Amino acid sequence: METSNETSRELSLLENIERDPDVTQLSxxxxxxxxxxxxxxHIKRLIDKGYVKVKRAERRKxxxxxxxxxxxxxxxxxxxxxxxxxxxxxxxxxxxxxxVEKIRQAGFDRVRIVGDGDVADICRLTCLEQGMTVVAxxxxxxxxxxGLKVLLHLKGS
Length: 157
Fold this sequence. Notes:
Low-confidence stretches: none
Strand order of the largest sheet: 4-3-5-6
Number of helices: 5
Largest sheet: 4 strands, mixed
Number of strands: 6
Radius of gyration: 22 Å
Shape: elongated
Structural class: alpha/beta
Order of helices and strands: HHHEEHEHEEE
Strand content: 15-25%
């Protein structure tokens, strides 16, 4: 079973190879933020599965060619990625709405959001849509973004 990271890397590799068939494994590794050996392993898997072909362009240069099966895989991986992102968005919004309701039940109409990134942005937007004022003061309940999780800390908890 492939992990989310492997799937994401394979999608990025296919996109980069499609954009530039003469790309090197070193530049792919730099773009992905992984070791060259990791890129080599993924490319070998893509070749073994028939998604990519490799041809020698020059003495020491390789050219990667995405097969029709590879193009179909890239399309499937892209759709899967988009679906996963929408699922994350919907789940985060639902969790924040539930937290907002608990905050209201505790008698508050303000919340502090701690954290950065897309999940924190979703929290801010959802709170504002729900009529909750987002503040910076430490006396308000707090929504803490930890990775993909949103934790509620009511006053005194």
